[in-house]
Amino acid sequence: MSIRPAQPYDVPEILAMIRELAEYEREPNAVVATEEMLHEALFCESPGLFGLIAEEDGVPVGFALWFRNFSTWLGRHGIYLEDLYVRPEHRGSGHGKALLAELARICVERGYGRFEWWVLDWNTPAIEFYRSIGAEPMDEWTVQRVTGDALTALAAQAR
Asked: Which one, 12, 31, 33, 143, has least CB within 10 Å?
């Protein structure tokens, strides 16, 4: 098993795993990302998205996509984990924990103040796994999102 930074040649496999993740999360038709979009986000001149690949015998079996966020209270950057996925046949072999440990290492090495992500409230196996590594729920916080027509309408109100 190994963890390495994503490379341009990984984009098709990353997109395939994103589609597998969407299927698992009961949203199989929600993925509109393309290989070109992912390639641009990950490998442009100044990328805002970063990726790690979990491999077994040189074959990608999982990934993590993340970006920097910022805590005004801490006055420091952090890592927001957008997606973590390990193919079902490779779960329980330590790949997910290795991906999270590498992200934690990056946080510590760079002096970041926190490492956070969302998890669906029905995903009990993931929640139990996250608790086992010391993650804590943010019970008083709820996610807010503006998208689609509401995003367009809000943008139209800008001066």
From this structure: 143
Name the one residue in this structure whose structure tokens are 């999982």.
62
Mean pLDDT of the chain: 96
Q: What share of the chain is helix, strand, coil (3-state, %, to 5)?
A: 40, 25, 35
Question: Could you give the domains of the chain?
Answer: 2-156 (3.40.630.30)
Which residues are tagged catalytic? Answer: 130
Q: What average pLDDT does range 124-147 have in this prediction? A: 94
pLDDT score for 159: 85
Question: How many Cα atoms sit within 13 Å of 99 on the Cβ side?
Answer: 29
| Distance, CA of 23 to CA of 27 (rounded, Å) | 6
17 within 8 A of 24, measured Cβ to Cβ: no
The full DSSP string for 120-156 is -TT-HHHHHHHHHTT----TT-------HHHHHHHHH
**Tokens standing for residue 155:** 């943008």
List the beta bridge partners of residue 70.
77
pLDDT at 98: 98
CA distance linking residue 96 with residue 47, whole number of Å: 24
d(CA 150, CA 72): 27
